Task: structure prediction
Amino acid sequence: MMQHISVMRDRCVDLLSPSIIASENPVVVDGTLGLGGHTEALLQKFSHLTVIGIDRDTQALEKARTRLAPFGERFKSAHSVFDQISNVLESFGISEVNGVLFDLGVSSMQLDEGDRGFSYSHDAPLDMRMDQSRGITAAEIVNTYQPGEIVRILRVYGEEKFATRIVENIVKARAIAPLNSTIELATLVKESIPAATRRTGGNPAKRTFQALRIAVNDELGAIERAIPQALERIVIGGRVVVMSFQSLEDRIIKEQFAEASTSKSPRALPVELPEYAAKFKLVFNSSEKPTDEEVAENSRAASVRLRAIERVAA
Result:
C-alpha cells in the first residue's frame, strides 16, 4: 500500500504550536485520528505534549496505536465519534485543552480498502460505515428507505441534480432484487444521468456515494455537535483547526466560527461591553488552500479548505 500522506500536516502543526509552546503540560485533541500522521508530527515536534486521538474506525485506531506506541503515555486514544469530545476528555480527567484538530470526511485508508464500500471503483458490499461495529449501512438506505427520503439524501448531501431519476431506477431495481454491491449502484447511477452530463465532472456516481456516506455516518450532524464542544474546552490562546473536503462541511465550520468570533454587543451601544465581546477570533480570514507542491504530492489535498480560530477571552 502506498505511503499515507497527511494533508497540510506542517501547516496544521504550525497553527497549533503557539499554545503548545506556551504551556507546561499541553494537551491537543486529534478528533479524527485516522492513521495518526498529524498526531505523530505533533508528538515528534513537542516532547512535552500529550495528544488524545479520537476515531470511530476500529481498523484505523489499531494501526494508529501501533504507529504511535513509541510515544508511550503521551498518546492516548478513544474509540468514539468526535461529537463525544467532552465525554472523551472527562474519561481522561481532562477539562481543557490547548488545541483541537479535525480532518473531516472519509480517510485515505477507508477509500483504499475496497471492501469497506466507500469507493465506486471497487466492487464491495454497500456498507460505508466508518465504524463497522454499529449503525445502518448504505445498503439498508437504498433498499428500505422511502423514495422521497432517498431523494432528499441525494439532493441535500450530494447536491445531485438528477436525484429523482436515480431514485426511480433504485426503486425499480430493488423491486427485483436488493442492491447490495457498489459497482451495481455505481452503474445504475451512471445509467440514470444523461449522457451529455456524464462526459464532464468525473465519475457520475461520486455525488450519490458522498451523499450515502454522509447519511450513513451522520457526518454533518457530528460536525454541528462537535465544534461547540471543542470551542468550549479550549484554553485562552488555544486554537481549533479544521480541514474540510467539501462545501457542505466547510459551510458549517464557516458559520460556527463566524458566530463564535462575532461580538454580541447591542448595535446602539457606543462601547463594547466585556460580557458581549467575542471570546474567539479568526486566525486568518476565509479559508486556506494547500500549496501547488502539496497537491502534486498528494492529490487528496486538492479540495481541502483549512480554517482556524483562537480563544481570546474566558
Observations:
- The longest strand covers residues 234-244.
- The mean pLDDT is 91.
- Strands lie at 27-30, 50-55, 75-79, 97-103, 234-244, 280-282, 305-311.
